Amino acid sequence: MSTWKRDFASGLIVLGPIIATLFICYLLYSFIANLTPGMVINADLLEPFLPGIGEPARAQIARLLRVITFLTFLAALMIAFGPFLRTKLGSLFEDLIDYGANRVPGLRLVYNASKTATETTIGENESLQTPVKLETWKGFRMTAFKTGQISEDDRVLLFLPTSPNITTGFVLEVDSERITTIDESVEEALTRVVSAGFGDADRAKADLEKGTEITVIDEMSIDRKDD
User: Fold this and answer.
1) CA 163, chain centre distance (Å)
2) Any idea what the Cα angle at residue 41 is, between residues 62 and 60, rounded to 5°?
């Protein structure tokens, strides 16, 4: 690989995720700012509070305040709606939403994927408890997670996610002898699966601290031997 290609790849690895994250945040910010009505908080409303600032700057501040207000309202709504969903009426309401979303072909995929990802990452049921290694074939091991459930014949139920989309996978019933518990957290194991094996930060750090052997060749000594 040429020098400019290697430099470009190194810069892309570091700056690529940052640029993508900022771009997504900008899209969300613009979407929320345009979604909230401007009549609630606008530049004219802020003029008595910010008399020395021009109208374009006040308009941008008004957009920021609308986004903050919307996110605060959304967080308060979720906190207030949470106890209701833990009741029988809330469970019935959730089932009705699931039933309606699963009847729409395009919406069904997005709804189920987002719901599974949310329940997996911040759910209270701790569906993914312990990362393990499972020998699927002789000489091959795959990363799976204990679900905390046991089958009728005393086999351990595991969830084997696909990579890089962890919202899909397989539910396996495995003998406990075939499972090897690893010294990793759920976040570390999920990072490796989502990144397709490239996100093992601890191993990369250990290799960096270990160092790489460098062989130095004295060209002058080689020339003397040739003479």
Assistant:
1) 12
2) 15
Tokens 């160092």 belong to 211
Domain that holds residue 137: 130-210
Q: Who contacts 134 (Cβ-Cβ below 8 Å, separation ≥6)?
A: 141, 142, 143, 144, 158, 160, 172, 174, 178, 179, 180
Please, what sign has the CA dihedral across residues 141, 145, 148, 151? negative
Q: Mention every residue, 6+ apart, whose C-beta is less than 8 A from residue 132.
A: 143, 144, 145, 146, 158, 179, 180, 181, 182
Average pLDDT, the chain: 76
- 58 domain residue, yes or no: no
* Residue 77 belongs to some domain of the structure: no
The predicted model scores a pTM of 0.47
The answer to whether residues 145 and 192 belong to one domain is yes
Residue 24 structure tokens: 């997504």
**Model confidence pLDDT, tens digit, residues 133-180:** 887 777 788 888 888 788 888 888 888 888 877 767 888 888 888 888
- The identity of residue 70, as a single letter, is F
The Cα–Cα gap between 199 and 188 comes to 9
Identify the sign of the CA torsion 101, 106, 111, 116. Answer: positive
- Residue 122's pLDDT is 60
